[in-house]
Design a protein that fits this description.
This protein is mainly alpha-helical and about 325 residues long. α7 runs antiparallel to α8. The longest helix is centred in the C-terminal third of the chain and has 36 residues.
């Protein structure tokens, strides 16, 4: 038991470092991860299953009955993130159509699963985070191609039902499974709950290794543009995060909900963006999405760790 707790503390404390290190390893030796390249969905599903084990069904129903914070978070994401992405694309890559398209695509897909994970780690309202992600899923099949066509001058056909069913399989079934097990075996699950956070982080590592190893060739073919791309996506992630947090606080949103909105506003599903870019635009357009994934995971991990420490100190002060 003490060994598991020690491992958990090491992973949580140095989470951003682990993310960068694993990204580098997956890039240098991508063939070592051929066997897990098809496990991205499994990794994401595991994360949602663990969230289901720890999520209060009462809190989820409370968010659904009072959706104003969820609607605010979705509004901020589809205005601030989209506006920042368009501005950065034109400012940094106005003469490089594929990269500019990739930047816009990375900012006009639904919120990323890691937003839920980091909300969970940071002591934010996970039920709100999942509700916002669900709303994103329903509106993105319309908004993503329309925004791309308008601002990138291209059109990406996104079929609603395949995306919808994919979310059902990866998100809702595991989440509901976790909730059902929690309801049926509450006493046993209570003993397991302290470890759901670290297991979610390990599942996230699986996703990182899978996505980066898949995209290694695209990255290696475009090394010359990577420094500028990383600067651009760092701004693309950090500006919406900061704006989402401070606007929410200014509007009087409770702290736990504000943390959920912060991650939702700044983290997009860049694994989906990279896949769409490879299929419709080519490897160069996928580079910003992969770079964004590395940066949103790293920045998100740093912020989640800061909030987690703050949350822990507050809890210790109240005990």
């Amino acid at each position: 038991m003490k060994t598991i707790q020690t491992i958990s503390k090491i992973i949580s404390k140095y989470l951003p470092l682990w993310i960068v290190l694993l990204s580098i390893i997956a890039y240098i030796i991508p063939d070592a991860f051929i066997s897990i390249r098809q496990l991205t969905g499994f990794g994401l599903g595991t994360i949602f299953f663990l969230m289901g084990l720890s999520l209060s069904s009462e809190k989820l129903l409370e968010v659904i009955k009072n959706p104003k914070y969820a609607l605010l978070g979705v509004l901020l994401k589809w205005t601030i993130m989209v506006a920042v992405s368009i501005a950065i694309a034109y400012l940094f890559f106005g003469n490089q159509a594929e990269i500019a398209t990739g930047i816009i695509l990375a900012g006009t897909v639904p919120s990323g699963t890691s937003a839920n994970i980091y909300t969970f780690i940071a002591g934010g309202e996970v039920a709100l985070s999942i509700t916002m992600a669900t709303l994103d899923t329903f509106i993105s099949p319309v908004l993503t191609p329309v925004l791309l066509q308008t601002f990138a001058g291209r059109f990406i056909p996104i079929e609603f039902w395949p995306l919808f069913l994919n979310i059902i399989y990866i998100v809702f079934f595991p989440l509901l499974g976790g909730l059902l097990i929690q309801w049926k075996f509450q006493r046993q699950v209570e003993k397991f709950k302290p470890y759901t956070g670290v297991l979610s982080q390990i599942a996230l590592f699986l996703v990182i290794l899978s996505v980066i190893s898949n995209a290694q060739q695209a990255l290696s073919e475009n090394l010359s543009v990577l420094p500028l791309v990383f600067i651009a996506v760092t701004l693309q992630v950090s500006i919406p995060m900061g704006a989402g947090y401070f606007i929410s606080r200014w509007l009087g949103v409770p702290e736990r909900n504000t943390r959920a909105i912060l991650f939702h506003t700044g983290i997009c599903n860049t694994a989906l963006a990279a896949t769409l870019a490879m299929e419709h635009f080519g490897s160069l357009a996928a580079v910003p999405a992969v770079a964004n994934m590395v940066m949103n995971l790293t920045i998100g991990a740093l912020l989640a760790s800061l909030f987690e420490n703050k949350f822990r100190l507050a809890a210790d002060g109240n005990s």
